[in-house]
Amino acid sequence: MPLALVSDIHGSDDAFAAVVSELEERGIERAVCLGDAVQGGDQPREVLDRLAALGWPVILGNADAFLLEVDESSPEPITEAQLAKREWTLAQLDESHLQQIRSFAPTLDVELDDGFTLRAFHGSPRSYDDLIFPHTPDGEVEHLLGGSGVDVLAGGHTHMQWTRYVDGALFVNPGPVLEDRAYAIVTGTAVEFRRAAWPTVF
């Protein structure tokens, strides 16, 4: 069965709903969210409710962790605008939503077809803050992702839809739901990149 990968929804339920609708049309039921689901947009509650209804496993992203605790040692500067948005977001959520965020896993291994294994994370398996880009030098990527012992590595964080091989494993970043309604479909060790269309309004 194919597995859908989504990431970086950032509180945009309209974009997320477009992706979910397309997955339903294609009959794809298995999916993993690679983190940063909630903070940033204007529909955090709706995103969490949709994720709960879908029952998808969710990885903890840096923006999700930011809602639970402000980490002063974060490698990214924390702005007043981000703090204000955080307070607004928290005001939209119930304690059950916070418990839901606390349940997000740092990493997750998922069994694919034919005995292949996928490891899901946000930045890298060691930290949701790690940045991996298409232009990141091979040695640095090997340091962050090499020696995994799995067949597919799936991460988000950088809001770019791309793939490369790392130490015998296929690395996949499905791209951001927020800006592009992007997602990926993994079947075995093959990947298909997609962008969902906005629903037609008559």
What sort of overall outline do the alpha carbons produce when their principal axes are compared?
A: globular
Question: Over all CA atoms, what is the radius of gyration?
Answer: 16 Å
Give the spatial strand order of the biggest sheet.
3-4-5-7-6
SSE order in H/E notation? EHEHHHHEEHEEEHEE
**How does the major sheet shape up?**
5 strands, mixed
Secondary-structure class:
alpha/beta
Q: What share of residues is helical?
A: 25-40%
Taking all residues together, what is the mean pLDDT?
94
Number of helices: 7
Query: Which residues form runs of ≥5 with pLDDT under 50?
Result: none
Report how far the terminal alpha carbons are from each other.
Answer: 34 Å
Number of E strands: 9
Strand content: 15-25%
Give an account of the 3D structure.
The protein has helices at 13-25, 44-54, 62-68, 80-92, 95-102, 138-145, 177-180, and strands spanning 3-6, 30-33, 108-111, 117-120, 152-154, 161-166, 169-174, 182-187, 190-195. With 202 residues, the protein is α/β, with parallel strands linked by helices. The model has no long low-confidence stretch (mean pLDDT 94). The relative contact order is 0.20. Helices cover 32% and strands 21% of the residues. The strands form 2 sheets. Strands 3-4-5-7-6 form a 5-stranded mixed sheet, with helices on one face. It has a 4-stranded mixed sheet with strand order 2-1-8-9.
